[in-house]
């Protein structure tokens, strides 16, 4: 498949998921959004399931790039930047509809090993990025010496997943969740005399 055709199909999948959600999504919907015939789409993908697996692979590559090097002058600022990057969608995204569709896909993971394996890659990469920032912060004194990077990273990743789910499911503002996370960093991770820079 040419890179242009792949981009058209993946972009069409993104648009179709926003419009139709996961459950109602059809190959025809994706073909329409991609500007292709259904036959042309089936030439590359046998079914919606296979196409969505490729779509998740593409999202994972983009996700790795987004979390690779969060800005900040110290590990505390880098951690906050990372969490903001993952919690808040890109400015040109349509967060509610697309995140709702992704939540529908995540709900299939207990029953679909292929979906589960791909979603676990997101979780593993995110948790490891958090852990590496926490470990660096403990080593250089930014974070308290009694912070356990593995345990704290697992907690933070779980918190972020829960905050995003709450936002999609019941509309809990992400800004509120970010504010609570900043409080957690200041009260639990930083030495007593330190404060995280939120500017």
TrEMBL record:
Pfam families: TetR_C_6 (PF13977), TetR_N (PF00440). The keyword Glycoprotein does not apply. Keywords: DNA-binding, Repressor, Transcription, Transcription regulation. One of its GO terms (molecular function) is DNA-binding transcription factor activity. Residues 3-63 form the HTH tetR-type domain. It comes from the Archaea. InterPro entries: BetI_C (IPR039538), Homeodomain-like_sf (IPR009057), HTH-type_TetR-like_transc_reg (IPR050109), HTH_TetR (IPR001647), Tet_transcr_reg_TetR-rel_C_sf (IPR036271). SUPFAM superfamilies: Homeodomain-like (SSF46689), Tetracyclin repressor-like, C-terminal domain (SSF48498). This is TetR/AcrR family transcriptional regulator.
């Amino acid at each position: 498949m040419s890179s242009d055709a792949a981009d058209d199909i993946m972009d069409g999948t993104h648009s179709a998921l926003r419009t139709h959600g996961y459950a109602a999504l059809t190959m025809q919907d994706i073909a329409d959004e991609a500007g292709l015939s259904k036959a042309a789409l089936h030439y590359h993908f046998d079914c919606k399931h296979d196409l969505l697996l490729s779509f998740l692979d593409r999202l994972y590559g983009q996700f790795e790039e987004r979390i690779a090097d969060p800005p900040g002058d110290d590990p505390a600022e880098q951690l906050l930047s990372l969490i903001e990057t993952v919690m808040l969608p890109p400015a040109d995204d349509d967060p509610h509809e697309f995140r709702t569709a992704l939540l529908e896909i995540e709900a299939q993971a207990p029953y679909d090993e292929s979906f589960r394996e791909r979603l676990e890659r997101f979780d593993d990469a995110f948790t490891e990025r958090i852990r590496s920032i926490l470990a660096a912060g403990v080593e250089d004194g930014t974070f308290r010496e009694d912070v356990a990077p593995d345990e704290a990273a697992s907690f933070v990743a779980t918190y972020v997943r829960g905050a995003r789910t709450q936002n999609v499911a019941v509309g809990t503002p992400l800004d509120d969740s970010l504010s609570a996370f900043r409080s957690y960093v200041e009260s639990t991770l930083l030495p007593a005399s330190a404060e995280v820079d939120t500017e």
